[in-house]
């Protein structure tokens, strides 16, 4: 088996780390919470950083009219299937394909990952802006418009007296390493192909 194919084989397996480790983490810091509230976003689930964090976030958000963080969303059924299917495709390419197919898998994963991030952004936007008009507490911007409470997609952001942080975790690293490795496999395969006399 060629070295480029071996790297492609490893690249196809790396995204499976999403089933073992969290994809993303959102943390909320505030003076009234000595221990910040936080939640992990997995490929198929939400989970607490500390016991009862999601419950406390939901209770807090209820006062400003935000929706409860659900136990499940449709993406939790779609994303795992997507990772399994793309892994199988990647393994087939590693065994049967040439370096040009490695680039196909790389582009496919970039497109799907970008679509996943965009979907995450849309979910956050809806979560932070689709507020209950009957909320106990209502906040407005200086221009009089209703204040949104959307957490950042990436980075940190002040929301009232909270400091929200949103960063990828180990599962996202496994995905990124897999995508990067597939491109390296393509470059090595392309280089080796040029050395073969026609």
UniProtKB/TrEMBL annotation:
<keyword id="KW-0472">Membrane</keyword>
<keyword id="KW-1133">Transmembrane helix</keyword>
<protein>
    <recommendedName>
        <fullName>Copper chaperone NosL</fullName>
    </recommendedName>
</protein>
<keyword id="KW-0812">Transmembrane</keyword>
<feature type="transmembrane region" description="Helical">
    <location>
        <begin position="170"/>
        <end position="189"/>
    </location>
</feature>
<feature type="transmembrane region" description="Helical">
    <location>
        <begin position="102"/>
        <end position="123"/>
    </location>
</feature>
<feature type="transmembrane region" description="Helical">
    <location>
        <begin position="78"/>
        <end position="95"/>
    </location>
</feature>
């Amino acid at each position: 088996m060629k070295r480029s194919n071996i790297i492609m084989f490893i690249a196809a397996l790396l995204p499976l780390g999403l089933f073992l480790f969290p994809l993303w983490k959102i943390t909320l810091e505030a003076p009234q919470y000595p221990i910040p509230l936080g939640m992990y976003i997995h490929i198929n689930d939400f989970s607490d950083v500390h016991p009862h964090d999601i419950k406390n976030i939901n209770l807090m958000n209820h006062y400003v009219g935000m929706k409860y963080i659900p136990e499940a969303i449709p993406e939790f059924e779609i994303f795992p299937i997507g990772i399994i299917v793309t892994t199988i495709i990647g393994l087939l390419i590693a065994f049967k394909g040439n370096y040009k197919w490695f680039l196909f898998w790389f582009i496919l994963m970039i497109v799907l990952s970008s679509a996943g991030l965009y979907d995450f952004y849309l979910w956050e936007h809806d979560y932070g802006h689709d507020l209950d008009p009957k909320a106990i507490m209502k906040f407005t911007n200086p221009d009089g418009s209703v204040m949104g409470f959307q957490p950042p997609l990436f980075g940190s952001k002040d929301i009232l007296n909270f400091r929200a942080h949103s960063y990828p975790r180990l599962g996202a690293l496994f995905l990124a390493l897999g995508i990067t490795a597939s491109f390296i496999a393509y470059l090595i395969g392309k280089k080796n192909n040029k050395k073969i006399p026609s």
